[in-house]
Design goal:
By secondary structure, the protein is mainly alpha-helical. The protein has eleven helices and four strands. The protein folds into two domains: 240 residues, f41 fragment of flagellin, N-terminal domain (Up-down Bundle), CATH 1.20.1330; 34 residues.
Length: 335
């Protein structure tokens, strides 16, 4: 009776083919992971529990949105501070010059100091009409237009309001009433919205309040001092040098006090900027920690994966070699 390949040989061949298929799958998967840097099966990586990775992804997405908002808020705050810096530069020297000229009671000095301060009104208004990304900064929710009317409009209204005043006290009283809340400033000079901008959400339960408008009392006072100087430069109470000196002294004091108030206002914005910086630091640290946690869940160790791939390739080559030998068996070879 002739010998023949046994059923055991057939079974071993079948098993070898299966083993080769598994090894080939492993090589393919490991090569893919090495190329992408991520585990091929997220379900296997998290043992079927997607809640940790979902929580991480949600927080990372939220932090990315907060980062975008914080970047805008930081830039917005910087624009505000730049406007304040501009105004401070314009008015600080003028306040001192007006007070000095008022003490001298010399017509020429009074006129020169008043004219110099008057020339600062238009650029001061321009600073408070500054825009960020095409939106008015100091106009509240009326972001599509300027916060303040131009200097010509304001001075025309003030000239009319003080036309009947014949002494320094009367002019100053009319000026105070014009700039007071509820006065003509609210309808003539400030043309923004009475509704302030909403605070910007820059973190989880953290907001940046940058809702200052040009109707703020401290900004009104800055404009008030320069506007009074403009009335003097336009000839108010001329040629009475004593009365004009009294007006100029008042203009200098108003401007000087307004500068101090603006310094406090700048400090308030600085406090918000410090809050934003602290929030950015916390958010960055949290994002980094979450990215590391996510990497541990879904990313591979390149060195370990490369080692496994090399081992799987060696195993596959060995299985191919053995399987090929088994498949080449014949009755002649067997005998």
């Amino acid at each position: 009776m002739l010998n023949q390949i046994s059923h055991g040989d057939m079974a071993r061949l079948f098993l070898m083919n299966n083993a080769s298929g598994d090894a080939k799958t492993a090589v393919t998967q490991l090569a893919q992971e090495l190329a992408t840097g991520h585990k091929a099966s997220l379900a296997d990586a998290v043992n079927g529990d997607f809640s940790p990775i979902s929580s991480i992804e949600f927080t990372l997405s939220r932090n990315a949105a907060y980062e975008t908002a914080a970047t805008e808020a930081n830039t917005f705050a910087a624009v505000i501070q730049n406007a304040f810096d501009t105004v401070a530069t314009l008015s600080e020297n003028s306040a001192t010059a007006m007070l000095t000229a008022a003490q001298a009671v010399q017509p020429e000095n009074i006129g020169t100091a008043a004219a110099d301060a008057a020339s600062k009104l238009a650029p001061t208004i321009a600073a408070f009409n500054t825009q960020f990304a095409g939106r008015s900064v100091f106009a509240g929710q009326a972001v599509d237009g300027p916060a303040l009317a131009d200097a010509e409009t304001i001075m025309a209204a003030l000239t009319t309001a003080t036309a009947a005043d014949t002494d320094a006290a009367s002019i100053i009283a009319s000026l105070e009433a014009w700039f007071a809340p509820g006065g003509d400033f609210d309808t003539v000079a400030y043309i923004g919205s009475t509704d302030e901008l909403e605070p910007m959400e820059i973190g989880n339960n953290v907001t940046a309040d940058l809702s200052i408008t040009a109707s703020d009392t401290r900004i009104r006072d800055t404009l008030k001092g320069l506007a009074l100087a403009s009335l003097i430069a336009d000839g108010a109470l001329s040629p009475d040098s004593t009365a004009r000196a009294e007006l100029l002294s008042a203009a200098g004091e108003i401007t000087l006090n307004a500068n101090t108030s603006l310094t406090h206002l700048r400090a308030e914005i600085g406090t918000v900027q410090a809050l934003m910086e602290d929030t950015d630091t916390f958010r960055t640290a949290e994002t980094t920690a979450l990215e590391i946690a996510r990497a541990e869940l879904v990313e591979i160790d390149p060195y370990d994966t490369a080692t496994q791939l090399q081992a799987a390739q060696s195993q596959l080559e060995m299985l191919y070699s053995i399987t090929a030998r088994m498949q080449s068996l014949s009755l002649v070879n067997y005998l």
